[in-house]
Amino acid sequence: MAGSDFFTRNAGAYAKSSSHAKGTDLGLLLEQLAVRKNETAIDVATGTGFTAIAIAETAKAVTGVDPNYKMIMEASKLAESKGVKNLELVIGQAENLPVSTSSFHVATCRRAAHHFGNKRAFLSEVYRILTPGGRFGLVDMVPPDGHADEFNRLEIARDHSHVRAEEVPSWRLLAVEAGFEITACQTEAERMTFGKWIYPVGPNGKDAAACRKILREADDSFASAIGLDGDLSFSKGRMVLIARRPSR
After folding, report:
1. Handedness of CA 195, 201, 205, 208 (dihedral sign)
2. For domain 4-143+159-191+236-244, which CATH number applies: 3.40.50.1000, 1.20.1070.10, 3.40.50.150, 1.10.730.10?
3. pLDDT digits over 76-97, tens only?
4. What 3-state class would DSSP assign to 7?
């Protein structure tokens, strides 16, 4: 995952993010995966652990993998504060997961894949570590159709570790090419003030100023696609994709 310095600096802020902790996409992900008590799960790019900890409430055992030590430490503190005993946290890259083949019934990756430099390798790894018939839940930000370049330019200005957010059709194609069967896919929009979107980046620094400039200079088509208002609030799309590794 790119941008380890960004996450090292902001690990504590991410641990306090109400959007990451309680976003409606997390509820949708858990509902559609329906993890059972006898199942093992892995959360890829677990960050400060919100998704892994939520899954641990029902799964037999959960492994959270992240490349950043400080994010893992925040996840460990959060798990300890909640009394979670069935979560193992491991340092590792999404494109080269340090776990055995066919060892998990469920895999998740939430709000992280836009940081991955090789999404095909990531999906191949998820396919590898799932048992036949295993389920995969992916949540990530998605640009409005036809506006990927403008959307990614804005996100990179906010967070220099951002690589690329893919449009929904691209994700569907990548998942199928990796061997998955898609069982559900929906996109939800979250209305965000500029302050909420820019977090954990400070609202008064040079990066925030660059983002304001991009939004104020946005052409009518992109502004309309994201529902941009005069106060720089806008709507951000998130995809919840559920896929299955075929049983044979």
Report:
1. negative
2. 3.40.50.150
3. 999 999 999 999 999 999 999 9
4. helix
Are residues 240 and 139 in contact, defined by beta-carbon separation less than 8 angstroms? Answer: yes
Q: Which two tokens stand for residue 60?
A: 């037999």
CB of 52 closer than 8 Å to CB of 112: no
End-to-end CA distance of the chain: 31
Q: Which residues contact 248 (CB under 8 A, 6 or more apart)?
A: 132
pLDDT band at 20 (very low <50, low <70, confident <90, very high): very low
List the Cα angle 9/214/190 in 5-degree steps. 70
Q: Which two tokens stand for residue 98?
A: 């340090």
Q: How far apart are CA 213 and CA 56, in angstroms?
A: 42
CA 95 from centre of chain: 14
Q: Name the DSSP class of 64.
A: E
Question: Tens of pLDDT along 170-197?
Answer: 999 999 999 999 999 999 999 999 999 9
What is the pTM (predicted TM-score) of this model? 0.91
Give the distance from CA 161 to its chain's centroid: 13
Contact call for residues 139 and 109 (beta carbons, < 8 A): yes
For residue 205, what are the CA distances in angstroms to 14, 33, 158, 208, 215?
A: 18, 40, 10, 5, 16
User: What backbone phi and psi angles, to 5 degrees, belong to 157?
Assistant: -65, -35
Residue spans per domain, the chain: 4-143+159-191+236-244
Helix axes 69-81, 4-15, angle to 10 degrees: 20
Identify the CA nearest to 51 among candidates 68, 64, 36. Answer: 64
